[in-house]
Amino acid sequence: MKPVLFKVSNASRSNPWISRVNDEQIYELDTVVVIPPYSQSAKLDKTTMKTVNSLIFITLLLMVSKACFSEVTRASGNGFAIANTVQSSKGSDDLYNALVNHVDHWWPKDHSWWEGKMRIDAFAGGCFCETADTRSAEHMRIAMVVPHQKLVMIGGLGPLRDMGLSGALVWSFTPFDEGTRVTLTYTVNGIIEDNAEGLAAIVDKVQHQQLSSLVTYSEEQNTP
């Protein structure tokens, strides 16, 4: 039997989630705790078992208090739809401000063409653009702006554009308890010749990272 790995986050990190590695469900967070496999020749003593149970309980609490939900809701040869949701302790004003005014600080540079400067023009017809020296690219076009509540972008992110795929990327901010629920959905349409489910899963992971980066950046700021 293989060891079980539990990675336990510190309380300041905001976006724990579950993934699977070699068919073992683990918590992809910060501190790795290795629990040795049970066997007839090596039984865990009561102290070790109490520690293990405590770690599992703490990890589950962290997941509930700072939940991030990710789902592929549709995938076919005609497109796909994905949804990611994070609960943040920050208000919608702070999160929206980080989205539209500080995108260059939190957008993952490995999700860009040249690791250039990113900007969002927060008005209908505006550009989510990247510039680097004399090079420039429009990542998406702004379709709707409802400050502190909703931002809609249209287009195909990254390689999706070269595949002839385009869709609506919607950022939504909803008050929740003492914070905000941030939801990012991407509904993509176009012909996918092969493995739509696999492509949707890849884009879902990328969107998860982008949403997590926004929330983490916002929660690390002391001022709007």
Structure, explained:
The protein is of the alpha+beta class. It folds into 2 domains: 4-65, no CATH class; 68-220, Alpha-D-Glucose-1,6-Bisphosphate, Chain A, domain 4, CATH 3.30.530.20. The chain is built from 5 helices and 12 strands. The protein has helices spanning 46-65, 92-101, 103-106, 159-162, 196-220; strands at 4-8, 18-21, 24-27, 31-35, 68-76, 79-88, 117-120, 127-132, 135-146, 150-155, 166-176, 179-189. An 8-stranded antiparallel beta sheet has the order 5-6-12-11-10-9-8-7. Helix 2 packs across helix 5. The longest helix has 25 residues, at 196-220. The radius of gyration is 20 Å and the shape is globular. The protein starts with a strand and ends with a helix.
